Amino acid sequence: MEAPILQIAGLRAVFRIAGRDIAAVQDIDLEIGSGETVALVGESGSGKSVTSLSIMGLLAKKIGHIAKGRISIRRRDGSVTELTGLDAEQLRRVRGNDIGMVFQEPMTSLNPVYTIGEQIAEPIRIHLGKSHRAAAAEAVRLLTQVGIPDPARRAKQYPHELSGGMRQRATIAMALACNPTLLIADEPTTALDVTIQAQILDLLADLQAERGMGVLFVTHNLGVVAEIADRVAVMYAGRIVETGLVSEVFARPRHPYTMGLMRSVPRLGQATALKAAGTPLPTIAGNVPSLAMLPKGCSFAPRCPMAIDACRAAVPPLFQVSQTQASRCIRWEEL
Amino acid sequence: MSAPAPYLTVRNLTKHFAPTAFSRGPVVKALQDISFDIPRGQVVGLVGESGSGKTTVGRSVLRLIEPTSGEIRFDGKDIVKLGAGDLRRQRRNMQYIFQDPFASLSPRMTIGQILTEGLDIQRIGNRAERRARAEKALAAVELPVDAYHRYAHEFSGGQRQRIGIARALTLEPEFIVADEPVSALDVSIQAQVINLLRDLQLRLGLTMLFISHDLAVVEYICDTVIVLYLGRIMEIAPAASLYARPQHPYTQALLSAIPSPDPAKRSKRQILKGDIPSPANPPSGCVFRTRCPYAIEACAGVVPELRETEAGHLKACIRDDIPA
């Protein structure tokens, strides 16, 4: 069997705060196959971005590091590389060649003093060893591929001359420049207007189908997950609490947090009926706990309507619900 | 249902931002000819994408920025013509809730100081009375009274937004502009804050202008929804009617673009092409025509008037044959 594009096993990343190591994520197991899109979904502080930064080796060195676990990726030549043991230079090579990255804010991930074309051409020269001229031509070709009209002219422009949506298309072109096997997209549409978001989601789906990359899509938006992902991992307070095919998790969530989250998403047309009936919108009571003061046992127990004493005794393992779905809830069978 | 007399009346509100000594470039036409009413005790939602002018409307009605032309009347009184003193007295009745609960609360003031600052400026009550009002506001937003002596950083995003709401309530206003009050919050907290705002609005009989970029968020709280695009009103309708039968092609596209949390509904979306044009150089005629799937030649010629297509439901589109 072909090795997965990305394999994470037992990942634990910690931040050193006030002399204490605080786990931002722990017990993370995740696999992405080629041509597969996996969404990592969660609210602020759930650890979804820390997970993606860990893969890219971009945790701020002074305060954060990977304390445990393995992260390996399958490279273009078919070899599997373990990332956690690499030094900075080796890691840089993998990042440029095999992992493409797209972030939330296109204005901050583009350099304001270089043209769009120069920025896309740079990794092509450095990582693929192409000439200036060949790289510049490739940059224009990539801009065409991400749907930028008049790409030759746009390549000569600076980031501030482009709209937000166009900038995000340019960062996608940059991420794809070296034909990566894995694309990590961390909230790539969050800063965009909803009509532009729809365009970018469409573009990412097309590019992925064309290139057969594995995609890790980090988002807080369940609508976006339903739209783009094959599988989903739901994170809460640093752990994956539920994982499975999008179709099965959305049809029947097996963790109370996933259920609560899905109920909280406003659905068009539904609110009118609730308002008419004088019923409040469904919510999850309370707040996300601080990672420095996680409760004993299941981290969701203090907000969970189904919590019992056993939930507070020990952190639940991931229970296998089906071949593809798993839940970190001891009462999953009752859901 | 007979409509109550409007509390806020906006007529032909226009705002142009002219270049200043420090900026070059053309005049930005942020708002063009905006007219709407808010009946007392009702909530009107103002929805649009970036550059639509929704925040400019919110700030103009409180005269936090000066409109270029137009009328803004509260209870019949045109506030565009008020002098500084009268305006300050009028503002007692009008409050603003900001989007970002991190940027809008001073890190160096206690919550008590934040909540009583407006009362100090308006010279309302003595110290004990101000404190009592602040504590009452904290209770109204379901925060513990001991929050009074704490600082903003000790609270989560959702709690901070409650503090922002409490600050707006201490002056016991009649009218509140809530500018994207839940956009910075996590989805499980968003619903809590909307429920709270709805509850307060009903209980206190507040009149509210609720600004959001997200049509899904305003549905629950708004009686009427206004859809803005590039500084102009595209559609105004009672909430139930707007969501059930959106009539303007832009509203339809906006609703369709919201990703549905239902994987079965995937790829049935209508995707608008292109970008929002620059408000410095809006298209002639209908400003939406450059992205509109139904645009015809005539759309470039005239700015479409808002016209009523069913009771209370107005659209600014010259075509009557847009499929639902």
TrEMBL record, chain A:
<dbReference type="InterPro" id="IPR050388">
    <property type="entry name" value="ABC_Ni/Peptide_Import"/>
</dbReference>
<dbReference type="GO" id="GO:0015833">
    <property type="term" value="P:peptide transport"/>
</dbReference>
<keyword id="KW-0547">Nucleotide-binding</keyword>
<keyword id="KW-0378">Hydrolase</keyword>
<dbReference type="GO" id="GO:0055085">
    <property type="term" value="P:transmembrane transport"/>
</dbReference>
<dbReference type="InterPro" id="IPR017871">
    <property type="entry name" value="ABC_transporter-like_CS"/>
</dbReference>
<dbReference type="GO" id="GO:0005886">
    <property type="term" value="C:plasma membrane"/>
</dbReference>
<dbReference type="InterPro" id="IPR013563">
    <property type="entry name" value="Oligopep_ABC_C"/>
</dbReference>
<dbReference type="InterPro" id="IPR003593">
    <property type="entry name" value="AAA+_ATPase"/>
</dbReference>
<dbReference type="InterPro" id="IPR003439">
    <property type="entry name" value="ABC_transporter-like_ATP-bd"/>
</dbReference>
<keyword id="KW-0813">Transport</keyword>
<keyword id="KW-0472">Membrane</keyword>
<comment type="similarity">
    <text>Belongs to the ABC transporter superfamily.</text>
</comment>
<dbReference type="Pfam" id="PF00005">
    <property type="entry name" value="ABC_tran"/>
</dbReference>
<dbReference type="InterPro" id="IPR027417">
    <property type="entry name" value="P-loop_NTPase"/>
</dbReference>
<keyword id="KW-1278">Translocase</keyword>
<keyword id="KW-0997">Cell inner membrane</keyword>
<keyword id="KW-1003">Cell membrane</keyword>
<protein>
    <submittedName>
        <fullName>Putative enzyme</fullName>
        <ecNumber>3.6.3.-</ecNumber>
    </submittedName>
</protein>
<feature type="domain" description="ABC transporter">
    <location>
        <begin position="6"/>
        <end position="262"/>
    </location>
</feature>
<dbReference type="GO" id="GO:0005524">
    <property type="term" value="F:ATP binding"/>
</dbReference>
<dbReference type="GO" id="GO:0016887">
    <property type="term" value="F:ATP hydrolysis activity"/>
</dbReference>
UniProtKB/TrEMBL annotation, chain B:
<dbReference type="GO" id="GO:0016887">
    <property type="term" value="F:ATP hydrolysis activity"/>
</dbReference>
<protein>
    <submittedName>
        <fullName>Dipeptide transporter ATP-binding component of ABC superfamily</fullName>
    </submittedName>
</protein>
<keyword id="KW-0067">ATP-binding</keyword>
<dbReference type="Pfam" id="PF08352">
    <property type="entry name" value="oligo_HPY"/>
</dbReference>
<comment type="similarity">
    <text>Belongs to the ABC transporter superfamily.</text>
</comment>
<keyword id="KW-0813">Transport</keyword>
<dbReference type="GO" id="GO:0015833">
    <property type="term" value="P:peptide transport"/>
</dbReference>
<dbReference type="GO" id="GO:0055085">
    <property type="term" value="P:transmembrane transport"/>
</dbReference>
<dbReference type="InterPro" id="IPR003593">
    <property type="entry name" value="AAA+_ATPase"/>
</dbReference>
<dbReference type="InterPro" id="IPR050319">
    <property type="entry name" value="ABC_transp_ATP-bind"/>
</dbReference>
<dbReference type="InterPro" id="IPR003439">
    <property type="entry name" value="ABC_transporter-like_ATP-bd"/>
</dbReference>
<dbReference type="GO" id="GO:0005524">
    <property type="term" value="F:ATP binding"/>
</dbReference>
<dbReference type="GO" id="GO:0005886">
    <property type="term" value="C:plasma membrane"/>
</dbReference>
<dbReference type="InterPro" id="IPR027417">
    <property type="entry name" value="P-loop_NTPase"/>
</dbReference>
<dbReference type="InterPro" id="IPR013563">
    <property type="entry name" value="Oligopep_ABC_C"/>
</dbReference>
<feature type="domain" description="ABC transporter">
    <location>
        <begin position="8"/>
        <end position="255"/>
    </location>
</feature>
<dbReference type="Pfam" id="PF00005">
    <property type="entry name" value="ABC_tran"/>
</dbReference>
<keyword id="KW-0547">Nucleotide-binding</keyword>
<dbReference type="InterPro" id="IPR017871">
    <property type="entry name" value="ABC_transporter-like_CS"/>
</dbReference>
